Fold this protein.
Amino acid sequence: MKNAAKRLLQSPLIWKLTRPFRRTGCVALTYHRIGSQGERFTHIPAVAFRAQMQWLKENCDVVDPAALRDRIENPPSAPRPSVVVTFDDGYRDYYEQAYPILEELGIPAINFLPTRFIDEGAPFWWDMLDTAVAMTARREAAIPALGSMMAIEDRAAKQAYSRLWKDELKQLPAPDRSPLLDSALEALGMRRDSVPLQRQVMTWDEVRTVSPLTTIGGHTHNHTLMPFLSPSELDDEVTRCRDRIETETGRRPRFFAYPSGAHSPAAIQSVARGGYEVAFTTRPGFNQRTKVEWLALNRIHAPVALRDLVALLTGWTEGQH
């Protein structure tokens, strides 16, 4: 859809007129970072996030996670789309930037925590890599998968370089990833202790502070891609995460999100054994009662522009079917 048509959808009259033609079902929106101008990491600006939440409040039914199963199984006849707001990774800007907006507007959300990072305050490996790539003085660097050097002279080249390393790193379990991450940093002329990263995730005190409107969900302990783990490793990731959340919040988590959306039959079985009732992938689409998979629900990555979000909620744009 063209941008002009998307902007038209934002008007109350056009939005109302599209009601008979919109796709039905419950939409789960995924957010990660909410930031401010000048921030290095990819994020949705706080002003754009506020505009999105205000529009959802005025034009949609934002579902409390506690009522999600009932909403999908018994969708209302009202014309307003059902939407659940989710966040991955427990970034600290949820506490600093997103939650004050959610609290002001009375919008509930789920935040999925990789608990080791909340425990230790350690940076995510991908944040460390992106920071090192942005800071390096080198104009080319090695890529093991290619067996050659790659130019990294501009922003686009640096982003491509980061993606190649991430494709290698994300397939490894957490203990096996460290040597390769060190190699990536060495290729950039850097070490872990030379990458200046302050704490990126919430503390447990901050997690408890946002609890009035935030449902805390599991996201494994080490944020490891689950299809690459053995059955015993899967169970350890799922139960350690569950138990840390229950210990720190006093509530056993009911919701789970697979890191990077990567799941498998074995991962789903492990999540079920861990007592989770609902789990999310990153497979785009609406969640409809006729074909719902409670341990493999769809989620849509929220775009930056409000017009794109509104178009997504009609179900007319690509990737939603």
Summary: The longest helix spans residues 231-249.
